[in-house]
Amino acid sequence: MSLDGLTPEQAGVLRWSADSHRDLPWRRTRDPWAVLVSEAMLQQTQVARVVPRYHAFLDRFPTPAACATAAPGDVVTEWAGLGYNRRAVQLHRAATVVVERHAGAVPDSLPALLALPGVGPYTARAVLAFAFEHDAAVVDTNVARVLARRAGRRLTATEAQAAADAWLPEGAAWAWNQGMLDLGAGRCTPRSPRCEECPVAVGCAWFEAGRPAPDPARGSAGVSGGQSRFEGSDRQGRGRLVDALRQGDVPRSALAPTMGWPGEHDRAERVAAGLVADGLVVAHNDRFSLHR
Predict the structure, then answer these.
(1) The dihedral sign for the CA sequence 192, 194, 198, 204
(2) Do the Cβ atoms of 241 and 288 come closer than 8 Å?
(3) Residue 282: φ, ψ to 5°
């Protein structure tokens, strides 16, 4: 694309992205459903784990209708290995709404996308930019870090989105957003930013000030602060139970050992009740099963 009329920073990001962008399978499609699936999978999950599951999931559920007509438990089963199984249920619910309200076609407006279960501001704008190539700027944790450092201060969510919108080159949303995501992931990293190799170092307030402490990205809206300890957590127990249920029903008497907490029956029942409330699991008198 022509770089005429762009600021040096905009042109720099687009040139750098064209030479350095990661070749990922969801970047080879403009299918809105495939883009939505990829964005749901990439939430708090590493790219290397997503790639094989992305292909398998779309082979099983190539359209919103195929996903919506399946049982929630079948969608959760196909989600194996990605963690945060609630996202699978939300994606199933989103597919159902797409079928019921939008004739099976993922909508191309921000309000309609935000109305889908499990779809927030980032995911909605990602679908607009990556599937429909609308002028929508995305702000995930990586982009939010770039924006805060460039501003030299912590940003509110509103300020971060406004900064992203103002920086977006008109008509270049797909390439620009992919470049910004890669820039945050590969250059403007949390612990060891490679500022000398960054195409927007000139004009970055934090870099030009000598990268003083505290890092303005820390505590800025949208920048991940890291996850709580997983080992021994309720999240680990939830994951163990869902993994077991993918293979078959779990007797209530085996609930606590299955979740890794022998003897902690009350805790196991409490966490299992959360899975039931989330729509992942069905509780019977003597056993638990996936929602099918």
Answers:
(1) positive
(2) yes
(3) -115, 130
Cα 96 to Cα 136: distance, rounded to the nearest angstrom: 25
Which of 9, 39, 78, 197 does the annotation list as catalytic? 39
pTM: 0.87
Active site residue 39: yes
**Residue 262 tokens, joined:** 């022998």
Q: Which tens digit of pLDDT belongs to each residue from 114-171?
A: 999 999 999 999 999 999 999 999 999 999 999 999 999 999 999 999 999 999 999 9
CA distances from 188 to 85, 220, 228 (A): 30, 14, 23
Q: What amino acid is encoded at 129 in this protein?
A: A
Percentage of the chain modeled with pLDDT above 70: 98
Report how far residue 91's alpha carbon sits from residue 114's, in angstroms, rounded to the nearest whole number: 13
Nearest-angstrom CA–CA distance, 273 and 281: 8
Name all domains of the chain by residue range, CATH numbers in brackets. Answer: 1-23+135-226 (1.10.1670.10), 31-130 (1.10.340.30), 234-290 (1.10.10.10)
Establish whether the linkage from the previous residue to 214 is cis, with ω within 30° of 0. yes
Q: Could you tell me if 199 and 15 are in contact, meaning their C-beta atoms sit under 8 angstroms apart?
A: yes
Q: Assign residue 109 a region (left: φ > 0; alpha: ψ between -120 and 50; beta: otherwise).
A: beta
